[in-house]
Structure formats: structure tokens, C-alpha cells
Amino acid sequence: MPTQSYKSPGKILLGQDNNALVILFAINALVFVLINFVKIIYFLTDIPIEFFYSQILDWFTLPAAPAALLLKPWTILTHMFTHYSIWQLISTVMWLWAFGYILQDLAGNNKLIPVYLYGGLAGALIFILANNLFPGLEKNILTTAPMLGGGAAVMAIAVATTTLSPGYRIFPMINGGIPLWVLTILFVLIDFSTLADGNMGISAAHIGGAAVGFIFIKQLQKGNDWGRWMISLVHWLNDLFSPEKNQQQKDFDEKHFFRANRKPYEKIADNTQQKLDEILDKISQHGFSFLTDEEKAFLQRASDEDL
After folding, report:
1. What gap in Å lies between CA 200 and CA 144, rounded to an integer?
2. What is the pLDDT of residues 284-306, one digit of tens each?
3. I need a surface site. Which of 118, 202, 228, 230 has the fewest CB within 10 A?
4. d(CA 250, CA 53)
């Protein structure tokens, strides 16, 4: 696949508006800061730390018992953004950046959050099923440690990225680069080694996340985008609560296109920059793998000229 030698002059930047990777970073960091800020308050007021776990943290983490889940159903979503220790947060963010940045480069900006959410939701479902259908995993379901963290969600992103392009090369300066699948194996080994002494239901959840990432990409390659409805919903909500933004965009389009002196995208002698911008916009929305051979060749020539 040509993606391993691809060098784009216009990758999706971390500072770009509506960057899905930055949004996930921000949500995970914000929840972490909020939880630990409340924990500091408990320390300063001499409230027993056990109360913090029962009164605050338990309302963010996913319980294994279905009865407890019914009392706080939102935890099926919040658990995947909740990290208690700084090292757990750093691990999630580091691996999310490693695989998420590549997935955005290959599949566009609209696939990362759906894969993260699907992976986290699948992990939550399997975590609950594993602990209740196979009680041998834990002796007492009521005392089973709840699940928290983005482990299953990040596992979904890692497997999705590798499924899309296992030959993608990282660190190209090292003997031509290291295949992405090598990094994925390293990530899987580290991930499951840290779970070896924990709840086996969590290990099952991470396997479920990996399965969802694989299936998501296979469906995408068949033309079935499981994340399209999420993006459409976000756009609908944005249009609903920001009508002035739509009017500004409409005025901009009318001013710059319908009242222009020439037709939109009219072919002119020097249209190289226009064509390059169109290709980069297509990469941002759909990913490099969706370019035609002609577009890839044009992008490669433009990249070589900038060297």
C-alpha cells in the first residue's frame, strides 16, 4: 500500500479547528483535572478518602453489577474518559496520539472519535457480560473493581489503524522505517501485561475493543461508515445551536463564489495550488487512502518540489 512512503505537505495539525485528536485529549485531561481537584478538597477538609471514592469517583466509573449500572447508566460513557492516576492518563494519551494521529492521516478527521466511542462502549458491554456470565472471574460481583480509563477505546484505535494500513512506516529515518504492526504488537504486550493481575473482565473488554476496531475498518473498506451518523448528529446539533454561523458561511459562499467573476473551480492555466488545496481538503475529510492514483501522484510531485 502506498501509504508507507506517503509524505504529505498538509497533514492534519494538532492546532487545527475541530481536530478530533485534540478533542479527545482535552476531554480526558479535563475529567482528570476535575476529579483530582475534588480529591484535593477532600484532603484539605480532612474528609476520609474512602468517602471520595464512594461519593465522587464511583459516579464516573463503570460498575460490574447490572443493578449498580441501572442507578448510574451514564458511566457506560464516562468511564472511558476517567483516569484516576497520572500514569494511567499519560499512557492513554501517549498511545492515543501514536495511533490516532496516523488514523487521522489515513482515514480523515471524522473516524477517530467514532472508533474511540465504539471501542469504549464495546469494552463496557463485554466487561459487564464477562463478570456476570462467568462468575468464576471474580468471587463476588458486588466487590468487583469498576472499570475506568480509555484502555478498550485506545485498543480499538490501535487495531483499526493497523488494519487499515499494517505496512505504514513510522520513524522512516531508521533503516527505512518500522512497520506499524510492530508498534501494535508492542502496545498489546504492554497493555495486557499491566492487566495480568487485575480483573479478567477488563482484559476481555480490551479484546472486545480490538475486535470493534477491526470490524469498523473492514466495514469502512466495504463502503459502510459506522461513524457517519455520529458526525451527522454533531453537525445537526451545531447547526441547531449556531444558526448565526450558518448564515455567515452562507454569506461567505455567496460573496466568494456566486458573485465571483469566474465560475467556481474554473480551469485556468495556473491551477496547481487550487488543485493541491482540494486534495488536502479531501485528505482532511476522508484520509489519504481515499485518493485516486492520479491525486496521489500529484501530491507526491508537489511534496518532492517542496523538498
Report:
1. 11
2. 656 666 677 777 777 777 766 65
3. 228
4. 50
